[in-house]
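Duplicate of earlier report; L-rhamnose 1-epimerase input re-posted below.
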Amino acid sequence: MERPTARRVCFLLKVKADRMDEYRRRHAEVWPEMLAALRETGWRNYSLFLAPDGLLVGYFETEDLDAALRGMAATDVNARWQAEMAPFFESLDGRPDEGIAPLTEVFHLD
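Output:
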């Protein structure tokens, strides 16, 4: 049986300048139950990159983006994590995970 192709997802958010150090600290100690929920709901190869100006670039791979987002939205740990992370971001209405607007991939070197 052929394995489905994973979709590569990239998104941008903006961390407030005065919250960047704490944002880094929080992500150095992500809750084990949050990590487990991400894995269980289909998030793979997930990375966050933070630029000096607060630009946050997120990247992950998933077999089904809608299912991965729905799966996380249904977990209690994600609701708690998103509530704690929301104050870190600029120009965000709602939860950070609701701000994921995938960028269009225009090139990929395989």
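The mean pLDDT is 92.

Merging into the original ticket.
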